[in-house]
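Write out the 3D structure for:
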Amino acid sequence: MRAVVQRVSRASVEVAGATVGAIGPGLMVLLGVSQEDGPKEAAWLAGKIAGLRIFPDHEDKLNLSVMDTGGEVLVVSQFTLWGDCAKGRRPSFVRAAGGEKAEPLYLAFVDELRKLGLGVATGSFGAMMEVSLVNSGPVTLLVDTEKAF
């Protein structure tokens, strides 16, 4: 699994002009699932992201996690994170999991975040979405389970 994690002041996602998910301060997570991923990767990634110390403490040092701050998380599926741009001009998505595998793992990731006590909003899996966010900092990180296992 791959995730682009952004610390945000607020974020939302719309489908066909209607807001389907919105959060205040917290994390915006774009999540990509590969063909090789499973429940182990979903659980590890949720724990890692929930515990990332990327929020400032009273001394303005990055010492607090989204759990410490009471922030929320907006999770949006993003198969294009598995796009390989090495050859040609059209990205190859052969490593991206198809919807039948990716959606249950996306939902497992969301469920793991909720089990940790986080408020979680989501996009609409497989839909054309418009994502809005205000990146705070800016702070943006890439987290990849391939580097963990």
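The mean pLDDT is 97.
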